[in-house]
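Reply to dn_fold:

You asked what the input looked like. This is it:
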Amino acid sequence: MTTLAWMREKKAPQGRFSRQFSAGGVIYRKDEAGVLVALASRTDFGGRQVWCLPKGLIEPGETAEATALREVREETGLRGEIEAKLGDIQYWYQTRESRVFKKVSFYLLRYTDGDVADHDHEMTEVRWFSLGEAIALASYKTEREILEKAAQQLTIA
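and this is what came back:
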């Protein structure tokens, strides 16, 4: 189904709207305690502190995979290698000018190097959590579902 067809089916709001396409990742590492994933904390539009997965807009000429690698590096200070696509989430949000339909593609990344202290200014804090803690702590239902898909992938491997 095309994005426009999806918007019609979901009864997109009347008036101005725009579309955004983003990508992000679940970066993980294994140690003696098990699987750890990195989550980032930031302040949302409502002023609340949220824990979320790193993600950002796909730039012109950039692939979703390249965006996921870049955004994970920028927002967490960590580098990884893509192992699998985990899936897409879709949602609407409101700006002053219009409603925005956003689609985010998420990838599973195996940690290679970097330090969570090297995250960018958009994030308040970045920390490693056990997979179970990350699923429980993630602020958005759709991102918890992506983390659950990562857990399934990692138990199969």
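The chain has one domain: 17-156.
Hope that clears it up.
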